[in-house]
Specification:
The chain has 76 residues and is α/β, with parallel strands linked by helices. 39% of the residues lie in helices and 17% in strands.
Length: 76
């Protein structure tokens, strides 16, 4: 079953030109770092990737590469 999920995700990412990576409110350092790392990996494959977060990133995340590009997603 997991193989089907992974192959579906791979297929969707292969076809996508733009990818939004959503993180929850007040994400942990690990969550934000993972989202930003995924963004960098996707950009290397030619995708336009963006991290969206409903809350402003913590000041303590300032050393993460790409943190300045995180956009506020106010939800809805």
């Amino acid at each position: 079953m997991q193989t089907n999920v992974y192959s579906t995700i791979q297929e969707l990412l292969t076809k996508a030109k733009q990818v939004a990576i959503l993180v929850g409110e007040n994400p942990s350092l690990d969550s934000m770092a993972a989202a930003l790392a995924l963004t960098l990996a996707l950009e290397r494959t030619g995708k336009n990737a963006q991290v969206l977060c409903p809350t402003a990133p913590s000041v303590s995340f300032g050393n993460l590469i790409g943190i300045q590009n995180v956009k506020r997603n106010r939800g809805g």
